[in-house]
Amino acid sequence: MKCVVLFSGGKDSTYAAYLVKKQGHELSCLISIISENPESYMFHTPSITKVKKQAEVMNIPLIIQETKGQKEEELKDLKKAIQKAKSEYKIESVVTGAVESVYQSSRIQKICDKLGLECFNPIWKKNQLELLQDLIKDNFKVLIIGVFAYPLDESWLGKEINEDFIKEAATLHEKYKINPAGEGGEFESFVLNCPLFSRELKIKDKQIQGKHNSWKMEIGII
Q1: SS3 84
Q2: Which residue among 39, 115, 159, 193 is least crowded, i.e. fewest CB within 10 A of its CB?
Q3: Sign of CA dihedral 197, 57, 60, 104
Q4: How far does CA 175 lie from the centroid of its chain?
Q5: What is the Cα gyration radius of the chain?
Q6: Is the previous residue joined to 151 through a cis bond, with omega within 30 degrees of 0?
Q7: pLDDT, tens digit (0-9, with 9 covering 90-100), for 170-214
Q8: Cα separation, 14 vs 6, whole angstroms
Q9: Domains of the chain, CATH where assigned
Q10: Cis bond leading into 180, ω under 30°?
Q11: Would the pTM of this model clear 0.85, i.e. be above it?
Q12: How far, in whole angstroms, is CA 72 from its chain's centroid?
């Protein structure tokens, strides 16, 4: 089946793409939504413009759609991008990295229904700690590029998801009820390498900004 992946550059959408390809489907193109609104209800925002480099090393065409990020209105921009993928790449299904967000998954499903497309959510309801373990097992190199919840702070930026990270995430979940995989928006990630990439991406520079328990790291990559 010819698929388009709703792609943020983070761990969930990239891992969903990996699983779908592993199942024998074709990754025909990627869609990335660049929102003007950093508080977008639907779309990942830190370092979103760096998806171009990821698409390049995946050798998959990328459709970029800009949106003002207004609640519900941003769905029209998403639909426009999916329609373009259907027209240009003859896609038959839409792949998402949704894990627990009913808000996101239900709206994407509604768009797919209107356009006569299937919707794949390969990591839906997956145990969050198991998901992190699978990333390590399947050779994903993932960095934290944004944190948005107490007690996470600037020191978490740039951390790699590894066994030590999983232990810390499990502890924070028990103590503060923080989702260990950031599904509640507690943190955002960026994939530097995985089996879909022809080579590992490298960070050439970074800019950190924020305060209190809201920090993000914009990265330059090569």
Answers
A1: helix
A2: 39
A3: positive
A4: 26
A5: 16
A6: yes
A7: 999 999 988 898 988 899 999 999 999 999 999 999 999 999 889
A8: 9
A9: 2-120 (3.40.50.620), 129-221 (3.90.1490.10)
A10: no
A11: yes
A12: 20
